[in-house]
Amino acid sequence: MKDQLYLLKPGFFNQEKGPFFCPGCAYVEGMLSFYPELRDKIEVHYLDFPRPRQVLVALIGADNQGAPKLVLGDSAEATPEDIVVHTYNDKKFIADPREICKFLAAKFGVGTPH
Asked: Where are the alpha helices (H) located in the chain, listed in sequence order?
């Protein structure tokens, strides 16, 4: 299974205020714009803002439905030591935007955050 990246769709409203975008998602989206080849190597999913975000709840639990999230596929064992990997049931995931980018850089040989 490929790694699964979950980002919020930009332009959402929260309590009738907005439009907003998720800063952490924008950080990761910036890396995807610099290295578009990553989109062929992972699966990118865009979620609506309102909770519950059922797909994330089903994968990694209700407490982990914030975005961005990178749910690791077959590569979970090859994660660099300095990246915090969380576990929910049998799923491993990365929650921090910077660490998501560091993981993608290490795995796919693209630039890493400075």
From this structure: 23-34, 54-60, 97-108
CA pair distance 49, 52, nearest whole angstrom: 9
pLDDT for 76 equals: 64
Q: What digits encode the pLDDT tens for the residues 34-62?
A: 999 999 999 999 999 999 999 999 999 99
Per-residue tokens: 28: 């990761």
Half-sphere exposure at residue 7, Cβ-oriented, CA atoms within 13 angstroms: 24
Question: In this structure, what are the phi and psi dihedrals at residue 82, rounded to the nearest 5 degrees?
Answer: -85, 5
Q: Cα separations (Å) of 88 from 20, 46, 60, 110?
A: 29, 21, 5, 28
Tell me the one-letter amino acid at 41.
K
- Distance between CA 29 and CA 39 in Å, rounded? 10
d(Cα 76, Cα 92) in Å, to the nearest integer? 7
| pLDDT at residue 16 greater than cutoff 70 | yes
